[in-house]
Every structure is written in C-alpha cells, then in structure tokens.
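Input record (one chain):
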Amino acid sequence: MNISILGCGWYGQALAKALITAGYTVKGSTTSPQKTDTLAAEGIEPYLVNFLPGNEHYDDAFFTCDVLFICIPPKSRGGEGPEFIYKIQSIIKTIKKHGVQNVAFISSTGVYADVNAEVNELSDPQPNTEAGRILLKAEDLFRAESTFKTTIIRFAGLIGPGRDPGRFFAGKKDIANGKAPVNLIHLDDCIGLSMAILDRQAFGYLFNGCSPDHPSRSAFYTGASIRSGLEAPEFIDELKEWKVVKSVNVEAVLGYRYKVKIE
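The corresponding structure, as predicted from the sequence alone:
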C-alpha cells in the first residue's frame, strides 16, 4: 500500500517512519528544499509540495497513492485563516483530479469549546477560538465531498519527544484554572490510532484522539516539571472553563487501547 503524507512535521514525519517500519511505501511532502535530504535519509520518498496562493506546485506522483494523510495545521496566530481554507480547497481539487480514494485529515479537539462538560464525536463543537473555527470549516469542506472518503482525526494536546510538558509552565506562578482537567495525547498514541485506522480501513469516520486519563492541570504540569528537573509551577486552586474530551468511536470502530498513561 502506498501512503502519502502531506506535511512531514512533528507528527507527520514520525508517522512516516512508523509506516516504513511496518512495510508501507511512504511519500512525504515538505515546503522546504533543505528538508528533502532529511526525509530521504529516513527512507521517505521526498516531494516538494506547496499550496500557498500564487505559489502552488506539486508533483503528480505524490498524489498517486492509496491513502493521503493531511497534516498541515493552520497558523491562526499569523492570520492564516483565509489562506488555510484556500489551501484546503486546492488540496481537495487535487485529490479529486488524481482520484485519491481515502484521506485522513488531522484536526484538533480545539474545535470544542470549554463547555464545562464531557464532549465526544456526537457533540456540537461550537469552537470559540480562531484556530478552532478554521479547522471546523476545513472539516466541513472534506465532509461535503462524496467522491472520496475522509476520516477526520481530532488530536488533543500533543506531547512526546521534543514536546516536554514539564517546560510549559515550569517556574510560573498564579496560573489560572488549576483544577481543570487536561486533554492530551502522546505521540505514540497518535501513531497507534493512525495505524489502527489503516489496519481497519476505517475511512469516512470522525475520531477524537485523546487519552482517557484527565488529571488536573495542577497535578499533571507540576509532576511533569519535577520529572524534568525543573522548578515546579504554582496554580490557583480553582475550576473555571473546562471540558473532558471522550470518544465513542475509537474503541467501537478501531478497538484501540491507549498505550501511554497521562499522569
């Protein structure tokens, strides 16, 4: 099976390496000529792909694949909203042009607002951040297509190699909302979920990728800082806006069990 990964960043490159180990043929894209050698060294067939308005270019061979993973988060802080949606629209046109049948779009649990309740794939997201609104609009564009199947994966906060949560709040004082539960997923489980989707050929679904463990912000980040040998943060003992991200589909459809405990 041929897999193409559009966006070989922190998650995309790790996924590519896991897929190659599992025996898949993997093509990976980057917008940086300097990174092509890095991808090639990992056994990833490198392609320069860019969907920026006015600077679109790609090799047709990249879109000759059985499954396309799209891992390009919006840079909402830089005001990339309209540009990101343009990119998604262009990608969808290209998918249809090349007859790709199965797509996995990486989204975020940031599409859910803090509603002081549990949320799952059946919940109305009601995003209240710019990034959340952009991603939900992108999801809707994929959902509107009937010529190919898209599975949407909403990952929670990402932790793992190179993303040490102990550094997030180390040494800070009076941090708000200390009792709020965390919603996180380790890179190992991001990869595990993605592999399970491929194994089950589970396309056309929505999955929340979030650990079932939800310690408080205070407990988790204090422990993470101490384990990293950093100064412990100090949280305000309060519960303000919060949510707990659950999934009704991960176990039912994939039979997946999380590997990394969040504590």
